[in-house]
Amino acid sequence: MSRRFPRRAVARMAGRRALAAVPVLLAVTLAVFALAAVSPFDPVKAYAGTAGLTASQENLDQLRANLGADRPFPTRWWDWLTSALTGDLGDSAVLRRPVAEVIGERLGWSALLAATAFALALVLGTVLGILAGRRRGGLLDRAVTPLAYILEAAPAFWIGLLAIWFFALELGVLPAGGLTDTASDTVTADQVARHLVLPASVLGASQLPWFFLYVRQGVGEALDEDPVRGARARGLSESTVLTGHALRSGMLPVLTLIGSRVPELITGALLVETVFSWPGIAAATVTAATSVDFPLLAALTVLATVAVLLGNLLSDLLYGLADPRVGFDG
Question: Do residues 262 and 313 share a domain?
Fold first, then answer.
């Protein structure tokens, strides 16, 4: 008889995590404004652009006052925070547009890239890990495991550059970057799909080794446990032993990876977006950091922090559902 879904326990855990996230987000946003205050980059000169090279100090000081850059950073942080709580994320001083608009038009493309890459890494890494863990030392295990260690150590941008050289320049079978073909001004599904193949594959390849190695080790160790040996001794088929016993215990550690890989996924996505000129939030993040764009930088940092917190919550919920002994007390 299957267990009923523990809605109340899940809701209590989610509520506790939401309350605990409040001081974390406050501290993160305050740290952003504090670091920006001691940054060597001048937001006024970044805002003025080339005109700032010939502007008088009086004009620069007036512009600094207009932008509010002359106020102490706690004041700037508090003004931004109170406005953000009402839904107003402010205006980007460098991009000259509302922050919500900048993030809104880019977030979907970043989410598409990250979700596709994560699904690819999870499915392919899990399948290969099961096959390799089932027969450790076999041909597949000897072929894939060394490659997984190489991919684990290789930076995502290096894999991306190598993929562009081979698939785009040498073979010419896939576009090197962007969202659509250069000759087209219309965004179509088939063009997006073609341009998504390389960046999603590269980002997925950078995450795949973790799932593969965890699944391989978990399944391999589970097959050596006494319950599995007992199932084999009772004459159960190998597929029944694998799916009914080994996978149940061997896959549990993988659930924790779903949340712990989120920070690496975000970092890797920023690098991959930059390499492939993908129109996500990477360019906005770089612009916000180098120009000390307080509102945009704070909003992007909060967005990344929320993604990490939600990933950790998801992994804990999945682990609690898969293993009743753990529960939902975290």
Answer: no
Separation of alpha carbons 59 and 44, rounded Å: 10
Residues 156 and 202 occupy one common structural domain:
yes
Q: Is the pTM of this model over 0.85?
A: no
The domain spanning residue 165 has which CATH number? 1.10.3720.10
For tokens 């973790």, the residue is: 210
Determine, yes or no, domain membership for 102.
no
Total number of domains constituting the chain: 2
45 and 162 share one domain: no
Residues 115 and 239 in one domain: yes
Chain length of the chain: 330
Say if CB 46 and CB 66 are below 8 A apart.
no
CA 83 to chain centre: 27
Burial (CB < 10 A; 0-12, 13-18, 19+), residue 66, is exposed
3-class SS at 98? strand
Residues 15 and 76 in one domain: yes
Q: Which two tokens stand for residue 310?
A: 């939600």
Instruction: Please check whether residues 186 and 270 belong to one and the same domain.
Output: yes
Ordered per-residue pLDDT tens for the chain, 330 residues: 445 657 777 778 778 888 888 888 888 888 888 877 777 666 676 666 666 666 677 777 777 777 667 778 788 888 888 888 888 888 887 777 888 888 888 889 999 999 999 999 989 998 898 888 888 888 998 999 999 999 988 888 899 999 999 999 998 888 888 887 776 667 788 888 999 999 999 999 999 998 899 888 888 777 777 666 676 667 666 666 666 666 766 677 777 777 777 878 888 888 899 899 888 888 788 777 777 777 788 888 888 888 888 887 877 777 766 666 655 555
Neighbours of 5 (CB within 10 A): 9
Q: Which 3 state secondary structure label does DSSP give 225?
A: coil
Same domain, 90 and 191: no
Q: State the residue range of the domain holding 126.
A: 108-290
Please give the DSSP secondary-structure letter assigned to residue 93. Answer: T
Sign of CA dihedral 319, 323, 327, 329: negative
Same domain, 213 and 176: yes
